[in-house]
Amino acid sequence: MGCGSSMDTQTNPVVTEVSSAMQPRQNGASGNVVEQYVRLDEQISKLEGTCPGPRMATAEAWVEHIHGKHEAMLGLDGMGVAPLREREWEAEEALPIPAYTMGGRQGDPIVANTPTKDLAQLAYNLGVIGDARKASMHEDFFANLSESALYLLSIRYYGELFEHTKVRLKTLAESYAELNELYVKQDGIIAYISGGTYMTRLEESIDEQLETARDTRDKLGSALEQWRICGLLLRAAANSSTQALKQWRQLGRIIDPKQKLQWALDCRSLLHASTISLEAAQLALPHVELKYMSHRQVLAVKHCNTYLITDIANKARYEHTSRVFTSYESNMSKTCTWLYETFNSTLRPDYDKAEETVCGLAKTLRDHREEVFSTVRK
């Protein structure tokens, strides 16, 4: 009867319970039940506008996708690496690298057992921060350490993303449950007044048009959630890249080797967070090619990040890395801006138009029913 959205409600109204609960209020006040219908319909229309059902379905799919990605990384499929338990990677600075031995490095006990927090001391002892010759001698060794640490950091970031998406899903599920409760109450009122049948041909016609309009709006609402997820992740990627670039530029002016190394590690973490956010954004909106950002550029950033520690002492490499990071930060910002501009010029107007159509039909049906119901109740 037009009381539910295109997302199926989970409960059916119990007309006898609704009608008996209303009966005391109906005696001597025939307009009360009609006023209740109008108030409920207005509430429904407002809550429906947020598309909790379609958005929830999209969020559920996203949670499953991220969970699968996270589980695969924990299992380290195809990496020849022993599985990690969640408590073994709580924070990068406290991450022991035991159990993380990759391919050709399985026989290297230092790589296998060096915690990230000891990397700074090791690099300091070997003099790779201020001596280009020593840095060149040990670059592959430190690159292996960085790869291990960054992979573990990826697991941590995807774990955090998974927890964040669960919070979003819970919020949408609560809104959807609230909407279903309103549907049940409204259906009970309509059934109480009309016996569950259309009272006029006009009511039936408007209701059919409304359901069609709701279906269109809900599909757009589902897509809206995908773009929202992608947009938030791109914004996070852009912010992290900007912070990392500032860190990297300031690093060049630091004299103390230990401080310089710590800043380098912070920069590395920020850039890795940016590339992971970008990767997740692409997963969230797989059919949209993100402008200004190429796979080749991302690979260049990851390569620089892997060799970041030993490239500091080499002026030419430091400048090359600076150019790579600067270009990435600039394009990351452009990509983020482009996505929001594209959204605001395409999907947003379409959704707003669909929502306007739904609201107009809902009000027309509400006004018509108010008139008919009031006549019946007199």
From TrEMBL:
GO BP annotations listed: positive regulation of apoptotic process; positive regulation of autophagy
Task: Give TM regions.
Answer: none
Gene Ontology cellular component annotations, sorted alphabetically: Bcl-2 family protein complex; cilium
> PANTHER family under this entry?
RE15880P
Give the protein's recorded name. GM18503
Species of origin: Drosophila sechellia (Fruit fly)
